[in-house]
Amino acid sequence: MKIVIVTGMSGAGKSTALKVLEDDGYYCVDNMPIALVPSFVELADGQANKLETVALGVDIRTSSFEEITKILDRLSDKNYDFKVLFLDSSDDALVKRFKETRRSHPLARDSRIQDGISVEREKLAPLRERADYIIDSSQLLTRELKQELERIFVREEEFTNLYVTVLSFGFKYGIPNDADLVFDVRFLPNPYYIDELKPQTGNDAPVRDYVMSSEISREFLKKITDLVSFLLPNYVKEGKNSLVIAFGCTGGKHRSVTLANALYDSLKDSDYGCRVEHRDIEKDAKRKK
Question: Can you list the domains of the chain with their CATH numbers?
């Protein structure tokens, strides 16, 4: 019997994870009391028509949560095949989600959301250290989180606990606060000064071809791709689970979009989860209205 323990920060996507696993045929139980986990597993494994795949949602609301590491040790001692999936997210993203849904954090009923998040992160630290899979959902849309979960549990592809966001932006709108690596591409050929290319974006073939027709652009992309290929496995070794690589040009519409798309194309079929986002691609058009 295959068992997945789904846990993590409140608001990071545990409910989504359980729904994905349920759709894949897992028997899912959310918020199960910790003390009942061993008994449930033994019962599910011992019945005549035993369950093949089980997912158990465990979070800070569960009674006797402090016993979770002891329970995992008991499952290990009995040689049960289980994996721990930990859903994480940045504090800023979690605060935003709680405010948008107008929900209270389970540990911050009478205090600030941030206080509840801090207490929960501290309590979950031992469980996070034991996780087999850590997914940081800070930058992920719901559909992207589902895709990442399906990659792990449905298609059973290799997982490296690192999710990469390749981001384009315009310097005149500010550098992204969450960027880990920032590359300035304002030295590349600028389609803005070509009348027929100016209204288009880096998602359009004529703009892409114009930017990448330059030897400098192609050499720059090769060097960046080599650098990122070197960095990613080393970030994984250090335990990093979310990486934002940002390309910036003046307005975030032409050159940065082209380079972000090019790097994404080189990473999308790798062992790392990856997405591309163009933060400022439509801002010039909106400002002119």
Answer: 2-153 (3.40.50.300), 163-288 (no CATH)
